[in-house]
Amino acid sequence: MPxxxxxxxxxxAAGTGDWRALAxxxxxxxxxQAPGQGAVLLERVGVLAGAANHxxxxxxxxxxxxxxxxxxxxxxxxxxxVALAREVSxxxxxxxxxxxxxxxxxxxxxxxxxxxxxxxPFWGVVLGHSRSGGDLLDPHRRWPGVxxxxxxxxxxxxxxxxxxxxVPDDVRQARVDAAxxxxxxVTTEExxxxxxxxxxxxxxEADVIAWEGFEEDLPxxxxxxxxxxxxxxxxxWRVLQGASAYYATGGFxxxxxxxxxxxxxxxxxxxxxxxxxxxxxxxxxxGPPEDGWIGPARLGVAQRAQAAARDLGLRAEPAxxxxxxxxxxxxxxxxxxxxxxxxxxxxxxxSTDLYxxxxxxxxxxxxxxxxxxxxxxxxxxxxxxxxxxxxxRVAAAVAAGGTVVRDAEAPFWRTVADPEGNEVDIAVIxxxxxxxxxxxxx
Length: 442
Known about the structure:
The protein is α+β, with helices and mostly antiparallel strands and 442 residues long.
């Protein structure tokens, strides 16, 4: 397309100073200071998107709004994104909202594979992802994409990192059956049916998990999944890490209206709401990332959100829902946790968990190992950060116990290992296209 531009071209364009190019398009965070501001900005973005016939992704959070622009027809950025970004920034400024582009990032995963074609179907089913060339991408643009990298030699030992994929209780058996049909195998049945540990044909593992139906003792005032569902008015919702619902909207305007209504219900109740608006659908979640539990107030917000969706004639699709978690085996949990908190910019939850403060990336769980065992690295994390953040992020990861193990491609990416050898590529996008084309950077 004639209006396609590079990431560096987008960032150097006039009026895009609030925005940063990442792995998928360009994003920013507008911080809100008072209840209702996020919904007002969302509605203004809806008007701008409709006028331009160009629709961004919008993530409404308790303390701000993340907006991402991207042109699917060029699989990247275009002059249309520049124009929409300028207008969104102007709308936010008119509301007195400041941009915080340093807060945005995108987490992706890379799997080393001897035979990519053999294992891709398994991962597509387990994650609910779709194929895009040689990659797997979330069609709803919420969870990490997966890249497949050719291995130089076999590495048959058990991996240090595996994925946990949380799915609704009523779809978990179908998800497992489909994964097995796609070339997977069950590696242990010890925890079935709460979760299945599956592996692809090359031994990379994923746990397919459903919490619903497996009760645990909770403090007074909190609802078990069964109590939440039995309350009525939440038939569209499922309990994963928190309670979530997905509604197909068939267009942007209906999604804006649903999110605005749900946000106002949450503001009135004093309850945090997490809403992801895409052109074709909306994901809602109650239960904040620092605990994920549900009390009566959060139940009430879920009920009001469902009523709003049904009033708008929207269809719930619970099978779309899933949460993704990265689980690392660790001998020294504290040391590994400190590293990953710094490398990913995450916050701590308890002694073994980390979470993205914007709830846009996968959570992290550190699984204690009783004794050392020989393992291999075949899955690693890629975190795409703003170019003006990358040096500080690498420095923070090193200060937290990491070691830079590869930097030949700096500043585009640097590979940093945690104290036990798990790796992350801290990566930036602007300038890559120019470098690959043999032109001067940016």
